[in-house]
Amino acid sequence: MGLLQVSSDKSDKAMSDGRTDSAQISDPGWIGTTRGKIELGVVLGFCLLNLITPVIYWDLYPFSIAPMFMISPQKYCAYIVLAPDGTQLPPIAFGVHRNYWGNPVHVGIGIRPVSTIDEFGQVADEPVVRQQVERFLRQYPEIPFVVIEQQVFGPVDANRVGITQIRRWKIMNPVSAHYGK
Q1: Does residue 133 contact residue 96 with C-beta atoms inside 8 Å?
Q2: Does residue 164 carry a pLDDT above 80?
Q3: Which residues pair with 55 in a beta bridge?
Q4: Calpha distance 81→152 (Å, rounded)
């Protein structure tokens, strides 16, 4: 007999009449316990929610459709904001910053981003840029004007992406004493 086989008249008799002795009681394992069944149910339920929720609600934390890089823009803009003395100012203070981090805006970010004219894949024209910057510039009456540089990035040739256009605008502060000068 091998080490794992236990055979005796007593154990053979116990097996035939449905009774067991201590030598034949086996561990039912994790899944055989009530706790194991509950834990497995919770894990399977979470996995099912992970599959169903993004289909129904698009994006509901912590369940996501993983939308990163789902759009493929052909061009985008970078904005540089300069004070009258030439120092660079933060684009977010004037509403010309980038909200795109790989996910489309309002998908997978979990926050409501600050208003901006910068939409990945689109180029804002001068009236739109002026209106946005003037709206934000009102908060800074001590700044008479800013210079906005719009760098447009796109395909330079079949193998490279780079700056295809640069536009600059001097935008006066409508609440500054220097407005119109």
Answers
A1: yes
A2: yes
A3: none
A4: 15
pLDDT higher at 12 or 82: 82
Contact 114, 97 (CB under 8 A): yes
Q: CA 66 to CA 97: how far, in whole Å?
A: 24
State residue 117's pLDDT score: 86
Measured between alpha carbons, how far apart are the two ends of the chain, in Å? 106
The domains of the chain are located at: 9-57, 76-172
E-strand ranges in 3-157 read: 76-82, 88-89, 145-155
- What's the pTM value of the predicted model, to 2 decimals? 0.58
Return the residue matching tokens 């201590």.
22
Contacts of 67 (CB under 8 A, 6+ apart): 59, 103, 104, 107, 108
Query: pLDDT-derived band of residue 54, with 50, 70 and 90 as boundaries?
Result: low
C-alpha to C-alpha distance for 1 and 168, rounded to whole angstroms: 92
